[in-house]
Specification:
7 helices, about 30% strand, seven-stranded mixed β-sheet, 11 strands, about 30% helix, Alpha-Beta Plaits, four-stranded antiparallel β-sheet
Amino acid sequence: MPAHEIQRTAPAKINLNLFITGVREDGFHELDTLFLKLRAPADTIHIVPANPGQGLVLDCPIPGLVPENNIIYKAWEKLGSLTGFRPDLHIRVTKRIPQGMGLGGGSADAGVVLRELNRLAGDRGLEQSRLIALGASLGADVPLFLLDAPAAHATGIGEKLCPASPDLSGFTLVLACPPVHVNTAWAYSEWDRKNPAPTVLTSVPLGTKKSAPESGLLLHNDFEQVVFAAFPRLREIKECLLSAGASGAAMSGSGAGIFALFRDHTQARNAAARLRRKDVPCHTQSFDAGV
C-alpha cells in the first residue's frame, strides 16, 4: 500500500500507421500498427490510500460514466481476481487527453494504473507477459502503456509488442483535436460493413506513399476510408496540414485526432495557428533529438 500520494503521467499516443489485417473468430480485429507516445496532451493519475474496506474509490470526470464501467476499475478488478490483491485506494484522474480522438486516453490511464498496482502487489504481481495479456483483455491500446518504450510496433489485437525507435529527428509534430467525436465501435462496424469477410491483409495503396515523410516512415490509417466518408471535416484538416507543408499526415486510431509531421518548425507553428483560428485545438511537439 502506498504510504503517501503516488502521481503518475498517462501520455496520449498516436498511431503513426495502422492497418486492419483481419477479424478473429471471437470478433476482435487484428492490427499492425506503430504506436508513438506523446509528451502532451497527458492525463495525471493520483493514487492515495482509501479507508479500510472501501475498495476502489474512483474520481474520474467523465459525465455519465458509472465507476464500475470505467476501464480503470476493470483493471483493478481483473488484477485482483488474478492475484488476490485488491487494495483500498482512492484514484483521481486529471483528464487532459480528449475523448473520441484516437489518442488512447482511457487506455493510457488503465495501463498506468495497472502497472502501478502490479508494482504495489509485490510478490503477488504478474510477470510481464501475463500483465500484457491482462491489458489486452481491457483494450487493444492498453499494453502499450505497460512498456517503458516511447514507441512500439504492435500486432495481434495489440498484445504482441516490440519496442521501436522511429527516426523522427528534426521533425515537428502537429496534432489537431477537432470538436468531433468518433466512436471506436462504430468505426470497426463500418470497416466490417465495407470490407466483408474474408478479410485479406491490407495492401498499402500506392497513393498513400506520397504522404510518407522524408525519413521513409509511412503514415497511413485504414480507418480513414470509413471515418472520412462520415466526417469530411477530418479529411479537410488532413489536407490543410499537407497543404501547409507537412511531409506526411494521418488520422490516429479510429479518429478524430489528425496529426502531421513537418520538417520546418515555422511551417508547423503556422499550421497549428491557422487551425486554432478555426477553433481546432492543436498540440505541437518537436523531435530535435529523436523520440
